[in-house]
Request: fold
Amino acid sequence: MIPPPSEITPPVSRNSSPLTPPGSNEKSAAQIHSAIACIKTIKRGILEELSTSPNHSFSLSPAQFNHLLQIAKQDQDLIGYIEDKLRYDYDPVRQRLTLRMPSSPHDSLARRLGYLIYDQLKDVAAGDDKASEFARNVHLVGSADITYEISGARKITQPDESFKHDEMAFPGVILEMAFSQTLKDLRRKAKDHIYDSDGNIRAVVGLKLPYGVDASQKIATLHVWRPEVSATGPTGQLEFHTSETAAIEFHYATDSGDLDSNQQTLSGTPSGQQSQADLILRLSEFASESFAADKLSDKDRDIVIPHQEILQAIRWVLQDGQGNDHAGYRDILDVGIAKRKRTETPDDDDDDAAVETGSSEHTGDDPDYEPPQGRTYRRRLNPSV
Reply:
C-alpha cells in the first residue's frame, strides 16, 4: 500500500547541508563595525593598514548609518573626530557611506583654486555699490557639511571647497577635484549637488587631472555644471536638469629636476580662444537666483579666473604636492639637545616624562627615533655659540 503523501519519508541527503548564511542583523552589525574600524584607522593615521584607494565605501541603510553614529557617540573622542575632522559622504538613496582620504595634491589644488576665486570676490567687495555689498557677504567655507533632505532621510556631503552667502541655506558655488576619481564620478557628484539642492547650488566647478596610466597624457580638464530649466516633450513641460556649460582643456608639460632650483617648466595651451579658456562665473551665482536678482538688480558682473592662473595652480600642485611630503628645508635639533618624551595624556605632569638625548648617532635600537627626511639645515639655538 502506498502511503499518503504526508507520510512519505524524504530520502536522506548524502550531501552535507551548506552553512547557514549570517542573518540580516549579523550582516548589518558587521558592516557597521567595519566602517567604525576604518574610521578609527583613518583617525590614527595608520594608512598602511588600509588599501591604496583614497575612498572607502560601506553599504549602510539610513537606519544603519544612524546606528553607527549612536555607537560612535559612546566615545566622545571618536564622535568628535567624525563631526569635526572626518571627510565623508552619506547617500541614503544609494545607501552608501564613503570615507574619503583626499591626497595632499587634491586638497592643495582645491584650496589654491578657491583662493583664486575668493581674491576676485574681495576685489569686487572693495567697492561701494550693490555688487560690493553682495560680495562682502560671500565667504569661502571650505569643505563644510551640506545636508540635503532626501525622501525623509538626511544626505550628507562635503565638497572640496564651497562659497556661501551669509543669508543662503546652501552654498552657491562648489569646487570638486578629481585625481583618482573618473570624470563620470565627477559628473555624477556635480549633478547630485545641483539636483539635491533644487538648483540652489548654481555652479559646480570640477577639475579632472590625469591619474595612474593616464598621467602621461598631461591634460587637465576643467568643467562647469549649472542648473537649467527647459521645455521638453510635445506639451512643452518645463523640466529641471543639469547642464555642462563649459569644458576647458589644459595641456601642460613638466620636466623633472631639482624642485628647489625652480627648474620645472610649464607650458599651457588651452583649447579655444583665451576668453573661452578662462573660468568665468557670475557674481549672482554665489546665491540663489531670486535672492541675487533682488540684491544685485542690474549690477551683476563676471568673476574671471584667467587660464594662466589655473595652469600655475596645476603646476604648483605637480611640483610641490607630489613626491616626498618631507621635501624642503626644516630645522633639526642640535646634537646634545634633550628632547622630552611626550606623555600619554595631556593631564600627565610633563616633569615626570622621560628625557631622550638628541644625537646624530641614533640607531634603529631606539624605537622612538625617526631619522630626518628631506633637506635640512642646522639651527643654532644660541647665536653666541
